[in-house]
């Protein structure tokens, strides 16, 4: 599968068909996007974070109301949010209504998923105004992490050792034993819970400082994977 990490999006998906919702989540996360899924307008209201989500994919026919009403409400707030309507209502009048009420793209559910991935990437690129980099920068000299569009975060020596080791994986899984060794411990005698505790503290530090999730995937009993673009300086 091609990678679109250069235009990684944080997506909120609102779709009430469970099988389709799960398929879309699996597909889009496979391209490196972060996807939060909901099944209703109420679920959207609980999950939506304007400071985090960059693209919303919204179905029209939801159990507690119309997705088009939601699109119109979001546009009225004038936030920098890309909106894709993905619906079974594919007639021209429906499409025109969706675009008029604020959708950037109006797609039938029969749309090829590769086309959807291309639209998400193009929309994210367009939203990335001012040439803002999506890279997570790790500064070696000052032991700081700079998330995209955020201020630098000071790291402890252990934070830095863990992040550097995972980032050097260049998007590939990094084994636990490699990270434990970077912490100066012996993999066979070290407390296995130490690394997990370290990761929880690191994730919490980044979230509290930026409102962003640290883009590290936990691979159970295997290791960790940094799935966003990175630069080590």
Sum up the structure in keywords.
single chain, alpha/beta, Rossmann fold, Arc Repressor Mutant, subunit A, 2 domains, five-stranded parallel beta sheet, four-stranded mixed beta sheet, 14 strands, elongated, disordered N terminus
The major sheet is characterized as: 5 strands, parallel
CATH architecture of the largest domain: 3-Layer(aba) Sandwich
What would the principal axes of the Cα set say about the shape? elongated
Tally the helices: what do you get? 8
Given as residue ranges, the uncertain stretches (5+ residues, pLDDT < 50) are 1-6
- CATH superfamily membership of the largest domain: Response regulator
**Overall pLDDT:** 85
Q: What structural class results from the helix and strand content? A: alpha/beta
User: Strand tally, please?
Assistant: 14
Structural domains: how many? 2
The main sheet orders its strands as 2-1-3-6-7
Give me the CATH fold name of the largest domain.
Rossmann fold
What's the N-to-C terminus distance?
29 Å
The value of Rg in angstroms is: 20 Å
What proportion strand?
Answer: 15-25%
Helix content: 25-40%
